[in-house]
Each structure stands twice: as structure tokens, then as C-alpha cells.
Amino acid sequence: MNELEIGKFIEKKGLEIVVTVAAILLLFSGLVFYFYAWQALNEAANSTAAAPSIKQALLEVVVRDLDERQDKLNKLKESPEPARNIFK
């Protein structure tokens, strides 16, 4: 093919070629995104299986901390600290 025939081919089929290549690239990138998104959703679903035990442990830590704070508050009510020692 000489340059004139190539130019005529591009003039007739250029837009069609560009649109086809763009559609193929869009489809390929969509499939890659879908694959990785599907894997991420599966990982998230699998990680929630252990969530009740994690939540239970976290709640126990929070309850323990609240109990300690309550004890300190009760001690403070029984024997108030002088103003100069309040931040120690």
C-alpha cells in the first residue's frame, strides 16, 4: 500500500478504528477493575467472619477503661485532691 491508499483507508475507517480501540480498552480496564473489586469484596466478606470476636475484645477493653475511670472518680469524691495536685 502506498501513502495515498493508506490515507484513503484512514479517512474512511479512521473513526471506526479509534472507536473500536477505545471500546476494547474500556472493556479491558472494566474487566480488570471488576476483578480487583470482586477480590476486595471477597476479602472484606471473609474478614467480617472474625468481627464478632474483635468487637467483643474491644468492648471488654472499653468497659475495663470505664470501670477504672469510675473507680478513680469514686476515690476523688471520697478524698478530694487539693487544687495544686489536681493535674498530677
Give a summary of the structure in a few sentences.
The chain is mainly α. The chain has helices at residues 3-47, 51-78. The chain has one domain (3-85).
Low-confidence stretches: none
Range of helix content: over 70%
- Overall mean pLDDT stands at 83
Strand portion, in percent? under 5%
The N- and C-terminal alpha carbons lie at a distance of 90 Å
**Count of runs of 4 or more consecutive helical residues:** 2
**How many E-type strands?**
0
Write down the domain tally. Answer: 1
Apparent shape: rod-shaped
Profile the largest sheet.
none
Compute the CA-based radius of gyration: 34 Å
Order of helix and strand elements from N to C terminus? HH
Helical/strand content category: mainly alpha
Give a verbal description of the structure.
The protein has 88 residues and is mainly alpha-helical. It has one domain (3-85). It contains two helices and no strands. It has helices at residues 3-47, 51-78. The longest helix has 45 residues, at 3-47. The chain is rod-shaped, with a radius of gyration of 34 Å. It starts with a helix and ends in a 10-residue tail after the last helix.
Key phrases:
88 residues, mainly alpha, 2 helices, 83% helix, 0% strand
Strand-helix topology:
Elements: H1 3-47, H2 51-78
